Fold:
Amino acid sequence: MPTPDNTNAPDNNGFFGNYGGQEIPLELKQVMDEIADAYQEIKNDEDFKQELAELQRNYVGRPSPIYFCRRLTEHLGGAEIYLKREDLNHTGAHKINHCLGEALLAKKMGKTKILAETGAGQHGVALSAACALVGIECEIHMGAVDIAKQAPNVTRMKIMGAKVISVERGTKTLKDAVDSAFEEYLSDPKNFFYAIGSVVGPHPFPQMVRDFQQIVGIEAREQFQNQTGSLPDTLVACVGGGSNAIGLFTAFLNDEQVEMIGVEPAGLGLDTDDHAATLTLGSPGVIHGMRCYLLQDEQGEPLPVYSIASGLDYPGVGPQHSYLKDIDRVQYHSATDQECLDAFITLSRSEGIIPALESAHAVAYAIRMAPKMAGKKILINLSGRGDKDIDFVAEKLHL
Structure:
């Protein structure tokens, strides 16, 4: 079992094992180092910690509860299924956890505008809310395909004052939105702050976003023991970039008896080109300032990827996830679009809880495995609610 030092923290150069770092132009390194220094300063500042804790409690509504899915458990037989209800957070997902931290940091650094990409729109909505809260300009880049698919979230961003940029290049989805936002950031990195939406990008972002998200696992570990008298046997979370998963997993990394499962989008099937199963089928490479597992061509360029869940269609993945795969601490599996849709409906109709399509991938894995795990307890990170997806799903399933 690896020690806490090499599972929980990157080295001084931002590497988790062979993954991470700062694969960026030299002129950007100074800016990233300034962010890293500012983050290290504020993360131990009592005033900052108290301000963030108060907002988590009174603005976000933390702690989010643990819920036992009684009817779903009875329907499936086998393992007991529990949900960590991040869908109940203000703005509807786990994204608000790191957006508040990043917005506060940017404000304290004197930045004039916060930039970000978004896929499903949950990061964009959360960041729009955080920027409105602290009083700083917000600009969100979003692929044209995702804008059409996630219209309610686009409207929410605009209502809260964010400028939404439609990205028309490439596949017009998440990877292209990242490229677009990063180009705008490069136009004035001294005054702009790029609030990366997952545990990806150059150091310090994989660590910083992870640290803001680890409240999910810290709460869950205590809550689950208080509620059931034991730790969960298995943790399950969807993985695109990987922020909700690493947020849950971090507090349990040294509990050897707790199995951890990350669930990637298999899309139309792993035997097709229409998936985004990076850790399952990818290889080490470089994207967006970091080294990680990557779906790439022979020249090392990122491949087009696909998922029914806009927040998961990314060809890379967080460097800490890449490392945890290599040391076999976390197992990574996948779920297809059809399994995701089936899980979306099953959870909605058995428990009255509509999950985000992203989160439904994790639910799908639990539904698949629970009948084989009698006497065990599965904890799913329900990372977001499905309000944003209901029109798309209703049309897809002819409801």
